[in-house]
Amino acid sequence: MPGTRSGNSSASRVSPADQITPAEVPRAAADQILTPAGRVRIRVAGTVQGVGFRPHVYRLAHELGLDGFVLNDTSGVLVEVEGAAAGLDDFVERLSSEAPPLARIERVERSAIPPTGEDGFRIVMSRSGGQPDQQVAPVSPDMTTCDDCLAELTDPDDRRYGYPFTNCTNCGPRFTIVQGVPYDRPLTTMSRFKMCELCQAEYEDPLDRRFHAQPNACPVCGPQLVFLDAATSEPAPAPAASRPPAGAPPRAQAALDAALAALDAGRILAIKGLGGYHLACRADHEPAVAGLRGRKHREEKPFALMVSGVDAARRLAFVSPVEEELLTQRSRPIVIARRRPGAPVAESVAPASPDLGLMLPYSPLHHLLVADRDLVMTSGNVSDEPIAFRDEDAVDRLGTIADHFLTHDRPIHTRTDDSVVRAGLMIRRSRGYVPSALTLPVAAAQPLLACGAELKSTFCLAKDDRAWVSHHIGDLKNWETLSSFREGVAHFERLFAVSPEVVAHDLHPDYLSTREATDHFVSDVDDPTTFAIQHHHAHLAAALAEHGETGPAVGAIYDGAGYGADGTVWGGEILVGGLTGFERAGHLRPVALPGGDRAAAEPWRMACSWLADALGGEPPLPSSLAGRVDPKRWAAVAGLARTAGRTSSMGRLFDAVAALCGIRAVVSFEGQAAIELEAIADHQERGGYPLAGDLDARQLILDVRRDVSRGVSIPIVAARFHNAVARGTALAVIATGLDTVVLSGGCFQNRLLTERTIDELAGFRCLLPRQLPPGDGGISFGQAAIAAALLA
Question: How large is the average pLDDT for residues 350-375?
């Protein structure tokens, strides 16, 4: 049975030869008879390939009785259309206003050309080339399964019933399977699968919603699911299980049977998704979740959950209207929401966290797996490693974690983690959003590459006014992640036809991203231009550029660490400037960073450093840390506080306060102390500790120590600290005399800090990152925006 069709069949053409008078036809048709004919060439730029745009053009042309053709090339979509002037005007207007749901039109260019007398309208084969001054056609992100495909998945009479790889032009894999442009099947990982007659008929029918759907497939000709035993990598016997509805494709049904039975028995599965492998188990099975945590070496960082729908999400968490909208977006990110008391999830899912990370299924396989159960669905890796996406690598790396593999034979070309959103802020931008382009406020005079930061790494390629920020890559200190970074740059250069002549990188000389820029990428460019860009300036610029602005503005840029222009470690900065430069108008008082990077892993060190600075000598060990810190080590660190390099890091101040409150002396993942300090804060408390606009936090630290020792409620202390930072920030901003304020840096992932700071800045225009993370995942875009502005 052919796939579901969308749109109407071709409308009959009206012409003078039909012997119909204008009085006998509607006004629009009469205009077509009376108005002289013409021909126009239309070039459409944006995300217009692989999203059903050519069938849209075809149906529109037939409805309006126009002749011509449409094709894909490396610049986008090219249309030539001929007919009455009124019809041509209507065609151009509806081309954009009625575009398919996944299309993102950035530019439509129209030019008159001589009529050819062409008869009929055709979709012709894609071709290489295009106008040399045009951008290459963007590739669409991977998109969640559409309603039409879901209906087929659950319809016993449909030939794709229960098929885990159902898709059409409105949904399914895109970025993760594309190998080159134009976006045609031979340049995707689906090239190995030859379509059967029914699929080929759908693919060739312009009125079918699967017309030129490059991943088009069915149980007869497409990818197949297999269930493997992790110990042997051989197909595992299918145990008795609650089976999917009768009639599902036999091979998929057997594998699903086995997987569902294993999950219900408390087993851990490695599941191959769109952008890589997940590790999964039942979310309500404590032994399984605890076992996964132990095998994955992920001590306390929360696991993400996949649930069947919004109602299932509401069972587990308080879902606000904003969070519901995010959950149901076609990009399907992980959305962080407040956990309901007594939510039926294992304690080990998110120990010590009041929140849960929830996402809805975004592939047919996920829909089949979570129909009747909530699953832990976490990245398929050992902590701090990149997600596994190649089958052989997954078997090697995940074989000691998973009991079984649920995998398939459609290769993944680009590894892509799930995106994460909290309170409307992007925490990690990846699957579902990448590789959509962002617009630079100042166009790049030369194609450029920005190499980003070292942690939470992304890179950015830019050409003219468009910038492509990569998917989340991770910590470049891991060799496989560094390799992924290099492969990703090369892949984006091919996809978007960018050959960088300019390279931008962080000011820190020892960042691996800087070394890649200077030792690897620059060596590939003849006479390169390079820009070394200060870390916090890039944060400021990223937020400005995202909002289409160039400055000036005042930025409160708070994070863990960044190499400062004076050679010290910055991180609590008040910067005044724009894309082409900045001044350091203020900063958090610098204190010693005893042990360097160890201070981030052991917050008690920063508590000791701040107390030593506030008291002017060796501080006594606070009662809140007694029994948790060796007094001899405390004394040794107090000694280091007199000689160690200094930092103005706001992230380390949060660590110090969390340690003084007895929340965390040592952390198991980045930002844990600050996250738990925010989580425990009493949102009803409006009092605050003293913190003036000079951001000298010595008295604040002493007051925190005093209140904790007197037994003041820790939630009250945590709230007073957040309020103090918000008020001190507002005072520092007001002193600059500017009314446009940027709040960015990793510390502004803290919802309470952000909300309280905006409250204190009532009347000011506050810009926050929305499309990119406030943390280091947005650094590369800021570097690109600065480099483009400096080139101009």
Answer: 95
